[in-house]
Amino acid sequence: MQxxxxxxxxxxxxxxxxxxxxxxxxxxxxxxxxxxxxxxxxFYREPIEAVSAEGVWIQGADGRRYLDVYNNVPxxxxxxxxxVEAIRQQVGRLNIHTRYLNAVVDDYAERLLATLPEAIGxxxxxxxxxxxxxxxxxxxxxxxxxxxxxxxxxxxxxxTAAVTDISPSSRPGRPLAPHVxxxxxxxxxxxxxxxxxxxxxxxxxxxxxxxxSKGIRFAGMIADTIFSSDGVHAxxxxxxxxxxxxxxxxxxxxxxxxxxxGFGRTGDALWGFQxxxxxxxxxxxxxxMGNGFPMGGMALRPDLLAAFNARDKYFNTFGGNPVAxxxxxxxxxxxxxEGLIENARDVGRYLRDSLREIANRHLAIGEVRGAxxxxxxxxxxxxxxxxxxxxxxxxxxxxxxERGVLIGAAGAYGNTLKIRPPxxxxxxxxxxxxxxxxxVLGQIRG
Amino acid sequence: MQxxxxxxxxxxxxxxxxxxxxxxxxxxxxxxxxxxxxxxxxFYREPIEAVSAEGVWIQGADGRRYLDVYNNVPxxxxxxxxxVEAIRQQVGRLNIHTRYLNAVVDDYAERLLATLPEAIGxxxxxxxxxxxxxxxxxxxxxxxxxxxxxxxxxxxxxxTAAVTDISPSSRPGRPLAPHVxxxxxxxxxxxxxxxxxxxxxxxxxxxxxxxxSKGIRFAGMIADTIFSSDGVHAxxxxxxxxxxxxxxxxxxxxxxxxxxxGFGRTGDALWGFQxxxxxxxxxxxxxxMGNGFPMGGMALRPDLLAAFNARDKYFNTFGGNPVAxxxxxxxxxxxxxEGLIENARDVGRYLRDSLREIANRHLAIGEVRGAxxxxxxxxxxxxxxxxxxxxxxxxxxxxxxERGVLIGAAGAYGNTLKIRPPxxxxxxxxxxxxxxxxxVLGQIRG
Lengths: 446, 446
Prior knowledge:
Chains A, B: This is Aspartate aminotransferase family protein. Chain A is of the alpha/beta class. The first copy, chain A, is 38% helix and 16% strand.
């Protein structure tokens, strides 16, 4: 797990290393370090100063424009005019908490719940996915009387104290919290099991049993339904069906963390869990929900919210404010009207096919996988040993940056590119990306 | 503590009680209950549907406008044109995380840190005050090696799992978490000690000693520097000086929670802790920071951030985005250019004087206290026994609502009105408020 720190070191700017080559960036980096201090983390060996953005493009202060193949928050496109206009109108009209009634908020809540399975009938709006997951854990505890949670080995579920405890990828080199157990994520490349769902379900059962032997009662399992921080594992569709059955059989709840796969990214449907044909007990959401406007949420079965409310109250000052609701409504409109789920499916498939084509020439590519516009591109030193090659991923990240393409890495070994551009990414953008990948791979191995 | 639930029941809409009298509100309430379910909490026996707001006024769907004497989030005034314009411009230009450089973010970070004592040299931007406090606890734990925290008896520090543990007012009827101890807030009315700072310092020392006897190492004390949820206790200035000395003597950190008193509200200075002449180790902020745009932050000594970063990393996706930074900059500009700190001081004093004047006629008023535009108005059944009168507070809240004035309550007994209007509240608004208070009190007792 220690490797996570190395990944960061490989892909991020290192203040101890050489200073940026141009004067403006050098000054900007100094300003940032002067205020954010040790908390400052900047992408790339040579950081980028951004001044504006539109669609799939970010404009740098260096006069260059960068193709964004990484950012999943501005999911319907950077500064989408529809979302921008919705925010501009509402922010001048009313921005207040939910203890007064407001029709915009109710419109949004109804629209959002209508996209979810009928059993998931209530909604709590927060400001971030972290807040939503933090609350979901408390709901699961209240509803089950348990405290134990199961997550995947490299799970990331946010940044509060409680969700950091259930995020092994945020605790490199440290033992798991006592109430947390992990199960391996599916891995079509290194563990091509015939029945990965059954394998995971068995691991879940074993973890619950082991927990019980330590006197810890099982509360639930939380999973990012595309296992992004484990390296992007979407396949096979349906794999979570036996897993949720095991969770329910043991009296636990299944929390689908849709912060990454939600809002159309997987190209199958609006929600990542729909790829697996399951109905979670709780669904949490964040990042793309407002296309960058800070908002998150937890949708759940009404009986679970009632169980929580019997003991606790939850109120979020900014959560569900009308500006967030207006942004959220615009995002849902744009996804539907611009056919972004279909686009994610089409361009995603096209992009995976194109990457597999260049994989014929570039043996460093171990596997191309994913769903919709969430693709993992895994690098190895050779295809026989499948030895992870994080240095190739790092060289790709920094090489692509030099060529004006923004990308990042994920996975336990840091050797997998996390390809998740705004959903308005078109075939021509995919072509540009693949051409640059081809060129950088040629340089690395040349 | 069970009384907190009763306060809510007294002041909030009760779905089990009579339905709202007009058809539109009835439908709006039904919609809200249909999505938010048991999590729906609406102010007043007769809820209000808000459609727009400006300055100190909220426009209702019922065609009435309400004088806002309660909301401290739209602190420089509802929909302040300067803040609205800053958001409108930036949201169409760039809205991205802090792993790319951006000058607006650096401008804000520098401007904000310049308002704080020099020792507090670093900043971490979050989306909410809850996130900031959650992180501050982790920093204090990392820097001290301790886990124990001291808070005031009715403290409220936010809504994540970790900060709910240190928020006794959120846990009515439940024992404190094992790592938490409370000390009484100062109380000029019921405990008019000559030296409340020394009294609190002694209580802190005793709590640390008791903690140690249970094997719990002290990490720090966190306090809202105006003790709002304890009933608004600002006096005497300087009272926290012996307290922070005690905390430091025992190796702990002092976290000033400025979510309520910060950004000019107390009329003394930009920060509540400045009233007490202290330099905290960590300062957290939220609510008024972006005048409603979801943002929060933690400013701290660089050595503390370094201690945290040696073990943990923290990244907040939406935290410090350029739209939040633009909103934050506009808020700082407006506070200075419109002289809102001076206005809070002047109008606050005028309002307290006016309330004390009507207290000559209305014996239900036990005490008028506070600083700047954060005022506590405490009701009692009689002045001899000082028996708390939450029913009077509730009658005031609902009576004022009927007269078009918005207010709420706080404190252990729920008998104290929490008066904290937007900081652009003028003397004429104070007159209106006091006239209505006078009238409602006359009706209640009449």
